[in-house]
Amino acid sequence: MEKVRIGVIGLGGMGQEHMKSIKELPEAELTCVSDIDGEMTKKICGDYKVPGFTDYGKLLESNLVDAVLVATPHYSHPEIGIAAMEQGCHCLSEKPIAVSVKEADKFVETSEKNKVVFGVMYQQRALPEIRLAREIIKSGRLGEIRRTCMVQPNYRNQAYYDSAGWRATWKGEGGGVLINQSPHGIDLFLLLGGLPSKVVAKVRTRLHRIEVEDEATALLEYPNGAWGYYYTTTNEAPPAAFMEISGDKGKLVYHDGSLKFYSLKESIPEFTFSAKEMWESPEVIEEKLELPECETGHKEIIKNFCRSILDGEMLIAPGEEGLWTVEFMNAVILSGRKNKAVDIPVDREEYEGLLDNLKKSSQEKTVKETKRVTDPRFK
Predict the structure, then answer these.
(1) Same domain for 52 and 142?
(2) Which DSSP state fits 125?
(3) CA torsion, points 12, 15, 21, 24, in degrees to nearest 10?
(4) Is 366 inside a domain boundary?
């Protein structure tokens, strides 16, 4: 195999952006597309000169693909991905890989059973600042993590929520800011700081006319006893994320795309008990960082996915790690909705019960015009 034949399923804003990337990659070939909207499918087929299907099952049976890129609304990610994997196709899923951890488990298990490559579209992992931060942590220079913090503001206006009937509903989307705007930030937070073992959260709809949350906050506890804090919203501007990962040998600070690393000459535990004078503090050094030269963005994740299929290259964003984000989001929603502490791993059946009840109370939503437009800031 010289190129990976890819079928794109879901022709909304993100699906169309991914098609542009596939066309530019020597490792990939766009061979077909699928969307339930027949008019949209027909238009894209004409633009890209490829076959199209309104039934993704027909695409999987066409023998035109080695892999699929799933860019549909959240609930259908595991359904489509699992069907593809059972046909022997590799799968790259848009984020999140599922709405619930139970469905995410099935997705991961199916990829392992069928021995296919499974990736998730977490393109921010490819940023040079994140690659370097991971290396600092892996090298041990940060030491044992003692505290984490992430404040992840986003902004969305009401017109955004009114752009599609599935948006901001429990039945159509399965959550609000946590499941739609925040997965990329949560992924980085967990990638660098690890997955907590306990969550105490609050969630609410503070501003918008929607039935899901537009604000969430959580106190976190980790297996080693470290504490953390997380906050996200769609009610705040400018949307500049702030993250701190504090270890006993230093601190990483990531703010609005900029990375800083402060190292200590002696670790906190060592210095605390070796210092002789009452006002002594560890010597702090702000290290000069040299960012690696690397490709970034959606295209880099697709290229890496194809090279993993072709040559066994290690995935930047493996699908099984996509489970972490779903675990975290479910824990925050469950804790916030039930007003109680929640352990991680989340009780799968308890979360399914909560989600089923929320979907039953979900209201049908009509919009004047469905719009399929990708945020131009995140390509």
Answers:
(1) no
(2) G
(3) -90
(4) no
**Cα dihedral 96/98/100/101 (nearest 10):** -90
pLDDT at 1 over 90: no
Paired tokens of 118: 């499974």
Q: Which residue has the higher pLDDT, 369 or 238?
A: 238
Interval 301-306 mean pLDDT: 98
| Nearest to 228, CA basis, from 202, 207, 251, 246 | 246
Distance CA 157, CA 246 (A): 34
On the question of pLDDT at 165 being above 90, the answer is no
Strands (DSSP E) found in the chain: 4-9, 28-34, 52-53, 67-70, 90-93, 118-120, 145-153, 198-204, 215-221, 227-233, 242-247, 250-255, 258-264, 284-287, 342-343
Look at residue 374 and tell me whether its pLDDT is greater than 70: no
- Do residues 220 and 113 make contact, with C-beta atoms less than 8 angstroms apart? no
Residue 44 shares a structural domain with residue 71: yes
pLDDT digits (tens, 9 = 90+) for 59-73: 999 999 999 999 999
**pTM for the predicted model, two decimal places:** 0.95
Q: What stretch of H or E contains 345?
A: none
Residue 237: give its domain's CATH number.
3.30.360.10
Distance CA 96, CA 139 (A): 29
Helix (H, G, I), strand (E, B), or coil: what is residue 75? coil
Residue with the two structure tokens 């009840």: 357
> Is pLDDT at 378 greater than 60 in this prediction?
no
* Residue in the block written with tokens 């399914």: 352
